[in-house]
What does this fold into?
Amino acid sequence: MAVSSPSDTTTRYQGVYARHRSGCRLGHGGARCTCKPRYWGRVWDPARGKGVKTKLFPTAAAAYHARIDMAQRLRDGEAASLSGGLRLQDARDRFVTAAREGKGPE
It folds into this structure.
């Protein structure tokens, strides 16, 4: 699995990445990390056909455990709870429909 951006690096845990701060010197001429990175995990969701990310955690171990929990929820069929909430397009469509019907915000 590819690393998502130049500020993300792999960790010793499979599917867990370190998100480095913008001022971190990691990768500049072989320099060592100068920040305190946060960690996130990714699990493949076959129903959506794409990876699902965990939130950011202070330690790689916490991100690893969150990744394991997310994988279990996906296996148990709880993919709908991982959707991350309402999408902007869906919110816009609801707003336009409500405005046309003369309804106020819910």
Notes: Residues 60-75 form the longest helix (16 residues). The longest strand covers residues 38-45. The radius of gyration is 18 Å. Residues 8-101 form one domain.
